[in-house]
Structure formats: C-alpha cells, structure tokens
Amino acid sequence: GMVALERDQPAESEALLADAIRIWRSRGAMDRHAWDLCHLAQAQTELARDQQAEANRRECLALLKAQPNADAVPAVAALVQAALDRNDMIRARAWLAQLPTEKPRNSPELSLVRARLAQLMGEADAGQQIDAALAQLPDDRKHRRLRWQALSMQAAQACLVGQRDVGAAMRDRIASEAQLMEPEHRRQQRRLALLSAPCSAKGLAAKD
Known about the structure:
mainly alpha, 12 helices, globular
C-alpha cells in the first residue's frame, strides 16, 4: 500500500491499505499499525473521500497518543504537511493544535512544519527558521527526504528575497537528486515542487 501511495496510485494504495487494516483489526493489533490509518487517509484524500480520510486521520492520531511513551509529534507533523500540500491552512493549524499540551520535543519534523508555516505566512524570520530546521537534520539516508524538503524551502526563500538564480539552481539540483535516488516516489517529487514553487516561472510571475 505504501509503495502504491509513493507512486501516486491512490486507488491501489487505498485497496491494499484497507485490506491490511482489516487484518490488523481482526487480530486486535491496530494499535501497533496506527500509521497505516494515516497513510490510508492520504490515499483517500487523493480520491476525494474526505469524510473517510478525516475519520482515519483522527483514529490514527488517537491510537498513537494512547501508546505507552507515546510520541505523536511525527504524526502531527505529517498531518500538518499533508494539509499544507492541499493549501488548507485552517486544517494545518487545527492539526498543529493537536500537539501534546506539555511542551513537545523540538523534533526535525516539527521544526520543518513551523518553518513552512512561517514561510507561507511571510514571516520575517522564515529564512532563519528554515536554516535552523535544516541544521537539525543529519546528512544521511534516514533523513534525506526531510533534508530535500528543507533545501527546497531554502530555494524558495532565496527566490522570495530576489536571489532567483541561486534559488532556481538549488531547486533544480534537489529535484534532480531526488529523482535520481528515488525515481518512483512521485508524491515526494510533487511535494518538493510545491515547496519550491516560488522559483517556478508561474511563481516568479505572480511575485512580479
């Protein structure tokens, strides 16, 4: 199901993930596979099954929060990012409000989400927040997808402040690297394009 989702095949992904979830439920193991619900919601959103997707997101987050030593931060960050991909700022902020009431750990995922929100809102320190988020991310295989996202945001920031050649070159380099290393991950390529949109011809024209 996840492979189909990454390849931007939401109908196949929905069918496979729904089958897996039925099995986990029948075995009473849904709590150990909560992330499948979040992934199913992504596929359902692509298929315009909004009510089902919303219900699955909420169940996913509730199950993750209920686990011993629960860390819901990665799930919340993923939900916020997905909402921002849909240009749904209201829903993104609503999911961000689902963070634990105690001060959450400052994870790379959360730093990246907050930096993206700052950039979209045109906050003066957006560039600094992006730089700080990138500094949290080791340059290794485990974190490379997050690094690509942070670097795409850096490219966008360069274009937003008038350094168009720098930003466009960075955007192209990151897009090429992601395409080379993970050619079948089309959803990721789509997100990177969204993050660096201010460097696109359309984005530059809109800014002018």
